[in-house]
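Record 1 of the preview.
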Amino acid sequence: MIAVEQATKRTKAHRTYTLEDGTIVPGVTTILGILSKPALVPWANKLGLAGIDSSKYVDEKAAIGTLAHEMIADYLRGVETDTSEYSKVQIDQAENATLAFFEWEKNHHIEPVLVEEPMVSEAFRFGGTIDCLGTVNGELCLVDFKTSSGIFPEMMTQVAAYRQLLLEHGHSPIRAIMLRIGRTADEGFEERLINHLDKRWELFWHCLAIYNLQKEVKQ
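->
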């Protein structure tokens, strides 16, 4: 298993995954990019009508989300977060976002086993990065962090793919939990237990098959 990070912290979530023989394989997020996201069109139109540049808006939100995600991961690893590439506004908002996680943690004793762990599936030929595998109140859980305004179907399918990676590498989480951490106070905080993981994995497997077929056709 090899996962090579790109140059900057802002692109840290984007990795290149390779199999043992050196073959580059797609990541979970890339594969699920084939799914339709109908909510994006009215959302972009709403921003446009308000006079907001959707590209700049997304970039700013992404930076805050990336930093908040990094702060939580570093906290679980016991290391200090490097914020040198971010503005003061981005740092302040990311810190506010992490406060919601700390409030959740007060009632959830978490002992990390893996944090930000890149993995590849030799059997199914894809890669992904596990946010956190650890015991939560005594149960081994896959914990996925999402810095977003909502939980969407493809996010839960992602979690099923991450669980498959863990199973292939000898880990058997009892539960899969998604923690949605809003980047602003308006976006709030949400804990979601992800059910029907076997069915969601089946959905991901079909997406992977379509992704690979599309790639073959283009070639």
